[in-house]
Amino acid sequence: MASSSSSKRSKTHHNNKKPKPTPSPNPSREQETTTTASTRKSERKRKVLFTVAAAAAASSASSQHHWTEEESLSLLRHLVAFKSDNGAAPTPTQAVGPFFDSIKHSLPADVTPKILLNKVNLLRRRYKKYPSSPDTPLHRLSAQVWGTPTDTTNPNPNPNPSPTPTPTPTPATPIPTRLSSFPYLFHAAKGCLADIGFPVEAAGAEVDAARAAELEGRWKEFAMEEMRLRMERLDLERQLCSLVLDTAAKG
Fold first, then answer.
1. Collapsing DSSP states into helix, strand and coil, what is residue 132?
2. How far is CA 42 from CA 30, 48, 75, in A?
3. Nearest to residue 140, comparing CAs of 128, 150, 127, 153?
4. Domain ranges of the chain
5. What is the pLDDT of residue 239?
6. Is 171 left (phi over 0), alpha (psi -120 to 50) or beta?
7. Span 91-109, mean pLDDT?
8. For residue 88, what pLDDT band results from cuts at 50, 70 and 90?
9. pTM (two decimals)
10. Where is this region: Disordered (predicted)?
11. Which of 28, 41, 89, 106 has the most CB atoms in a 10 Å sphere around its CB?
């Protein structure tokens, strides 16, 4: 009985053992299969990313338009006309609404309201950033749309404007004034008149102010020079007196 029980336990213990994994007969083939699966997965991922990138590029291309200079000038002329009719440049809402509807017949076929709005904003920013750009048709039209009255220039300036006539100056009428208003001239005049016996009262008569002013300056310079010569003479006289005194003291 004990032997039968021991035999059952031995069978149960043997049945509970997990079978050992059987080694792969070709490990290199198994590794190749794993690598191939990983490569296929990477290729699928790259295809998805490429598809997304292509869709984004197509979307970006559809929202852009290469504007030529003539197309930009035409757009600015329409903006000038809109401002003239409405008193102001179109707002963003108007640019994609009434303004776009009014000029879409003259726009390139691929220009959408969004593309038009982007172009209008670009032109406005460029003008505001460089308001003093060289005088070109593009700049002049932009100034008419977004400039102030002080910086809006004439869109059709006259290349050969007539020179503004210069008025001929009217000769100034001499203003009479009394000789006594010029001290140096008045003093010299009194001396000259006294030397020749001319009435001193004549020195107080009215004279031409311009001529008197010119003579006043010259007489002032002459008087200053006389003063300098007088001082030099006094210095020479002082030296002469000193020489005489020294000689007398020695004798």
1. coil
2. 19, 10, 49
3. 153
4. 69-146, 176-250
5. 92
6. beta
7. 84
8. confident
9. 0.38
10. 1-47, 146-176
11. 89
